[in-house]
Amino acid sequence: MTKVGRDVTWTYLRHVRDRFKTAVLLMTSSPKEAEALADFLAVLEGGKIRCTGGLPDVHEKLGIGYEVRVRKGPNWNPSEVENLMSTTGFEQSAHVIYRIGKREPQEMSVLKEGLEAYERDGTVSDILVNLRTLHDQRARCTSSDETDSSMPAHSIATSSTKRPMAFMQLCAVLKKKNVTQNQSAAVVASNHPLLDSTLYARGIITHHMFFAWLLSIELALLASIPAVHVALERESRFYRLQMSSGLRPVPYWVGNFLCDGAYGFLYAGVLTFVSAVADGSGHLGGAPAAALFVLLWVHALSMLLPLYTVATLFSPLWTFVTVAIGGSFTGCFGLWAAHAKRTWAFEEGKTSEDPAMWALRFVPFFSAPWGVANLRLAGALRKECSIHSTRNESCDAVDQRCCACKSQPLMCRFCKLVTAQTEPKQRTRRQNKRR
């Protein structure tokens, strides 16, 4: 791979790991790639795990870093040199080897000055500094003709004490991350990050499509459940009595809005719980449960105003159908388009912000133009209610209300007052009919 292609692949692998909070099992023959990407390494030698651990642990076990080789001078003093190196050396005949790991350039400058001072006073001589990399150590490990005589024996033993446990940990990672048999075979056979991530992306897209279906049903329910409540309230005679008697409807609608908003809060919590159980993971189509709850609740509130308008002017059946289709599934169209774009982005290897989650933030506002278009009908609200509310229906509603509210003297006085005003006109109508 070229340098540009390698950087794009590495960036994409980091995006998959961090964005989806998942493990990426990468088999590579490039030590540079392993050091750049991995936070947990397993070095293989002849099909066996030589050592495992984090990057600093592997460096320490394999002796990665700076190696200082000095010859003992006439005034050899091991304690002074060990204080300078901050580690114990390994003697080999007339030479002593110090493995000091990776150091910053400033620290190496101080170390070099100290060694030159010891060389001048005859403590050491023939100073040789080498930088051992993971690539060099892997070449020594995999070579059948060459053995690393400078590697301490106890360092090799220490690095191999936990091989069975480390291998079981790797198997546990695969099981916990639900890697299927086919995908695992593709990972081992292809050994190509882009192909493997494409297979993984297809599974993610299928999961998100299921979430989109579930979200469409939830949005329809949140818009339709209050519609039934408003339609039934519109059919009640007492509601028409309030409108025809000149009572101001503002407190009535404010109370309904608060009540329906509380119901929407409850419904959003229940639907979020159902979605979390159906999802089976901590993220619902890539979105946290808290974000989904806020989304559903805001959508329920944004649908109440157009819902009240339609429910007041049309029949209950048309209210249910219009609100469910116009309010909810119109908003979900943007979500489906975002998922199609997300699929294309995965196949092209794009690493930008997730467009599906961007659309999720604006799903409630897709219904806003649809609601505003119906607000022009709100001016006919009082007129329409007055046409459907006759005096006879008002009197029937008064009688029923009085019978049901005997424990409320104030309401009964109001009912008697309305009855006294309407009774003379009713007598006149009966006499005209008899004539």
Automatic annotation (TrEMBL):
The keyword Transmembrane applies. Keywords: Membrane, Transmembrane, Transmembrane helix. Residues 180-367 form the ABC-2 type transporter transmembrane domain. The chain crosses the membrane at residues 210-232, 252-278, 290-311, 317-338. It is a multi-pass membrane protein. InterPro entries: ABC2_TM (IPR013525), ABCA (IPR026082), P-loop_NTPase (IPR027417). One of its GO terms (molecular function) is ABC-type transporter activity. PANTHER family: ATP-BINDING CASSETTE TRANSPORTER SUBFAMILY A ABCA. This is ABC-2 type transporter transmembrane domain-containing protein.
